């Protein structure tokens, strides 16, 4: 089975064989005009003795009636067109966070790092929070029962003067005043731009922060606190006794900082921002996913369920 995770920044494609993902290639998504051209490139670069007849495609956007729209790319994908172009017999087209939640049962203990222990041993429900190019969120009720969402596009709720000012700033840029613009890879650059009137890409900001540069550190602190706050909002919405799972490009960038007490404390400050509900928020474990391709594991779950 061909397996692919098509994100707003990176696309990861491989072949699933004997429960292992082989021949993985990573492409910059925006270097291609559409999803079909990415698949064509993969087939041109990876020799397959027998062309695959099945494909698992996880995409960064909502999926309805065998069609998907990739929110931050404007691309449209259809199962019918995929079958026609590549002679696939079976296409599993899913939202990327749906695939992430499906595949989570294949994560081992070494694939997970605990940020906060919980007070429950239940396995479900679970919440998945993945800030990357966009802000992906999904929720699993039980094994194989997953609800994807576009919750990242809900309006951002400002709690401080600087956050109200940030929303006004987003307005001047004609940007959506939503959570995705406050907590994502792009948000790192937006906050830095808002604070210091200077444009840097997220990688540059993280590298400066690792060197102790104050402006970059302030931006990272904002990201860490907002990550905790969003996790708290989802905890109170879904009561996820099976845990809150964090992944995505932004989390990868913040991972090194979250190993340090001052940044972890900032994250927990954001998470425990409603003292009245501390007794409840304490129940839920929070784990960081360290597996490099967790969305692709959803293909294993589809095969198992079938």
Automatic annotation (TrEMBL):
Coiled coil: none annotated. It comes from Thermodesulfobacterium commune DSM 2178. GO terms for cellular component: cytosol. CDD domains: ASKHA_NBD_GLK. This is Glucokinase. Keywords: Kinase, Transferase. The keyword Disulfide bond does not apply. GO terms for molecular function: ATP binding; D-glucose binding; glucokinase activity. GO terms for biological process: glycolytic process. SUPFAM superfamilies: Actin-like ATPase domain. Belongs to the bacterial glucokinase family.
């Amino acid at each position: 089975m061909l397996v692919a995770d098509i994100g707003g920044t990176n696309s990861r494609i491989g072949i699933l064989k004997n429960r292992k993902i082989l021949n993985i290639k990573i492409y910059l998504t925006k270097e291609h005009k559409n999803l079909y051209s990415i698949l064509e490139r993969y087939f041109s670069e990876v020799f397959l003795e027998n062309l695959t007849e099945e494909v698992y495609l996880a995409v960064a956007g909502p999926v309805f009636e065998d069609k998907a729209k990739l929110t931050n790319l404007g691309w449209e994908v259809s199962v019918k067109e995929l079958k026609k172009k590549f002679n696939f017999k079976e296409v599993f087209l899913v939202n990327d966070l749906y695939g992430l939640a499906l595949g989570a049962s294949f994560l081992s203990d070494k694939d997970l790092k605990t940020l906060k222990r919980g007070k429950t041993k239940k396995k479900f429900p679970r919440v998945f929070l993945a800030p990357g190019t966009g802000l992906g969120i999904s929720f699993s009720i039980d094994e194989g029962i997953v609800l994807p969402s576009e919750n990242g596009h809900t309006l951002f709720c400002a709690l401080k003067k600087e956050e109200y000012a940030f929303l006004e700033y987003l307005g001047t840029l004609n940007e959506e005043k939503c959570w995705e613009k406050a907590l994502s890879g792009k948000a790192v650059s937006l906050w830095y731009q808002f604070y210091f009137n200077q444009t840097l890409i997220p990688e540059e900001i993280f590298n400066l922060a690792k060197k102790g540069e104050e402006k970059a550190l302030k931006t990272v602190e904002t990201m860490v606190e907002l990550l905790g706050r969003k996790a708290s909002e989802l905890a109170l919405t879904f009561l996820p006794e099976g845990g809150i799972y964090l992944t995505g490009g932004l989390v990868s960038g913040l991972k090194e900082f979250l190993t340090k007490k001052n940044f972890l404390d900032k994250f927990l400050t954001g998470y425990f921002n409603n003292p009245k509900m501390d007794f409840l928020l304490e129940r839920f474990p929070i784990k960081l996913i360290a597996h490099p391709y967790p969305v692709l594991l959803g293909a294993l779950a589809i095969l198992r369920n079938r």
